Amino acid sequence: MTDRLKSAEMMPGSFGLPIFGEIINIISKQELFYWQQHQQHGNVFKTAALGFGKAACLVGPDANRLVLKEQADRLSSRLGNQYLAPIVSTDAVLLQDGEQHRTSRKMILPVFHQQALAKPLQGRIAAYFDTVQSVVTAAVADWGERGTIDLDAELRELTLAVVVKTFLGSEKTAEIQQVSEWFTTLTGGLYGLFKWDTPLTLHGRGQAARRKIVKYIRQVIRERVDRNDPANALDVLGLLMNTVDEDGNKFTETQIVNQAILFLFAGHETTSSLMDWVLFELGNRPEWRQKLRAEHQQVVGNEPIAMSHLRQLPQMSNVLKEGERLYPPLFLISRMAIADIEYAGYLIPAGWYILIFPLLTHRLPEIYQDPDLFDPDRFAPPREEDKKQPYSLIGFGGGVHSCIGADFAQMEMKIILSTLLQKYDWTVTPTTAEISPVRQPFMKQKKLTATFVSIEPIQS
Ligand code: HEM
Questions:
Q1: Which of 278, 313, 406, 454 is the most buried (most CB within 10 A)?
Q2: Ordered domains of the chain (ranges, CATH)
Q3: Does residue 395 have its Cβ closer than 6 Å to ligand 1?
């Protein structure tokens, strides 16, 4: 790399206040902060924050391809996501790099593999499907009688129950609720400014909760080893315990615990957040509820949805994609350069963070026509706006660290939507106009409330 490149320090944007950088804006505004920076500076800008350092922010499919695929070996997910280490630990797959990452990923992939999901009634996958369906059916059974509900809280509880039951095989409601509380405290610890491990700080309380989760998972593992019950071999924990790579390596107990915590963490708030926003958009759009209900009636009828229906619901798939596009639960993806990186005429030095943005890419008017509009038909042929350029839709990431649970999440979301469409009609406040152009988590997401009204089964 040569003199023709400009220093990344010359990118538009600002490093903010001395020492603090932009940390206060980032914590208080979250995606709105990056949204505003993008509006002001365009597709390449710089920022900095206390505790993180300097960052190059890159927007668009080319940047996504560079970071997720082409230069993946020069970028560290472990260093880029080190703020997550108090939750998931550094031997969980998201926080691994290079050969270590490749080995773990290869061992984990069969647990969530797409091919397996595509084949109905294959042992373990059918077991996931049935478990998810039973948790969802029980969780939403009384939504029609309860009047107005806090959508975010209900969906978080539901998706956590799904992963605790599916991944750990836990059957007891009290146990699931307890794990749910520990997780809320653990993730709350991320927002603490003081990283001391004492009960006086958010971080410390989060770490105490993590120790309880670790103890709980270890106990489940030991009970399984003692019981040696083959039925347990079919859930995610069972599969992790029995996975052997081609060299005969197995995960250690600590590795199993840490991967399981990552799955529980990565697998519930993401799904609940996306469902929040899909139900919110549908709640504001009777015509789309109607379209989905008609498609659903034609394919599924009044019976519970089955594994074989999942691929026969293109309108529902497009609604979920539109939710992913407009409200990606991970609105940014973070890496740290471990070697110099060249992009758009700049030299980004090793040691800088490089951030790419599902949210901002998904709102580029050169890719998506009328990008702030909820328009699921943009994904239907012949438009297929996401297919014109690779890495235009990256709500589930892409390349080497792409989401392992994407198919599981799609299955779960379709089961939730299908169950709700069959039983209820619903409205959500606030309206889409009040949220526009972009959600602001601390202000408006918490206030999403929904009213579900029971409907009669449609006569065919
Ligand atoms: C709507 C739901 C979900 C969304 C939007 C989502 C999104 C993502 C994204 C964007 C990444 C890439 C992160 C990066 O490159 O830094 C990722 C990775 C990952 N996701 Fe998901 N995810 C979802 C559900 C799940 C579920 C249900 C699981 C269950 C196990 C899961 C497990 C993982 C794991 C283990 C990784 C790390 C993969 C690796 O590093 O190789 N996710 N997810």
A1: 278
A2: 6-454 (1.10.630.10)
A3: yes
